[in-house]
Structures are given as structure tokens and as C-alpha cells.
Amino acid sequence: MTEIDLTCTPSSIGWACEVTVRTDRETRHRVHATRADLARLAPGTADPKDLVRASFDFLLERESNESILREFDLSAIGQYFPEYEGEIRHRVAR
Asked: How far is CA 88 from the centre of its chain?
């Protein structure tokens, strides 16, 4: 079973989110989400937590938590997985 804990704090360009993923091994990640990311991927949402959580669910379906970068910008996911933006918009809208 996978557990994801996260906290997001405001930054000058959006939010810095600290994410802990617990599977058989625990990993910690720092994710930067901009206001533009939130507007593009989760329109009408003011809090990035659901977007970041859904993004980690997406990543964990494709790789282990140990393979996920320890620090990255949310927009970088689409560089590795071209289907990310289309799929994540659908997930967050549910």
C-alpha cells in the first residue's frame, strides 16, 4: 500500500510542496508548482495539493517512488511522460 503525505507552502512563483511517499521504502520529494501550472492543469482550483497528489499517483503508476526525482518542477513531468497533461486534467476534474 502506498501512502502520500504532502504540504505546500506559498513561494514567489506558486508553491513549494514537500512530498513523502511510503511504500516498502520511504522517499521525500520537493515539487515546485507555479500558478500557471495550477491554472493550466487544474483550472478553478486555488490549492495545489490535489494536483500534486494526483501527479504522484500518475508517476507511481509508471515508476517506483525511488525512481522519482527528489526535486523537480511539476511542469517537468510532461517532458518524461507526454500523456501527463491530458490525463492529469481529467483526474483533477473528477
From this structure: 10
